[in-house]
Amino acid sequence: MKFRIAGIIIGTVLILSILPPLSVGVMNVFVLIPAIAGLFILFLPLIRKLIHRAGKKHEKRIIRLFLLFVTICALLIGTELILIWTNLAPQEAPAGSVVIVLGAQVKNSRPTLILAGRIRAAAAYLLSHPDSVCIASGGRGTDEDISEAACIHDTLVSDYGIDSDRIYLEDASFNTSQNLENSALIIAEKGLSANVVIATDGFHMYRAKTLAGWKGLTPYACPAATDKRLVFYLYVRECMGIPKTLLFDR
Description:
Layout: H1 2-16, H2 19-23, H3 29-42, H4 44-52, H5 56-85, E1 98-102, E2 106-107, E3 110-111, H6 113-128, E4 134-137, H7 148-160, E5 167-170, H8 176-190, E6 195-201, H9 205-214, E7 218-224, H10 231-248
Parallel strand pairs: 1-4, 1-6, 4-5, 6-7
Antiparallel strand pairs: 2-3
């Protein structure tokens, strides 16, 4: 009975996890994954009854496979969370380091909550390090009226008073790997420092720093504050993004 009550509570919480991101207009498959898991937990007693009808031999095999799957997922997620949490802290970079602001979605030519946080973190660093320059990185998606790089540039200039001459535009990328690869090309072309301060959300920092290292850059963390309404959804997305990066983005 206790396990059933716990299952109802966990399942309900997972289903309700869609509400915070939905309240700020975010709805996609990564928002729905926890809710789907919650529905599975709520219907688990019914699923077990259906499995039981398959016979004891098949029932034991299915349960073992399910427990193996859950164990593997738990180990992977636990490892990913450790990697994320150990890369959250800001780092002091050498003088003259280049700030790379990683793009995120733009709506009506203005930054969304995620991108606004990254721009704010970059602006704070640039204002306190006048010897540093910045690369605004991110292309224009099909649902965006300007590129993410242009939005970053315009916001840094208009909202924070950063000199436009300190900002280079990288507006041809559509994911983090391309952000950093194209930024590395700009750094090489302009003769800038390979020490880079990455302005992105803390949950995203491990993956960003890993990719930067693969592109020949020396990364330092400049974490942005993430809106609390988006944290759970973004961690779900990041835990699925890390294996993709490690396997396919080299």
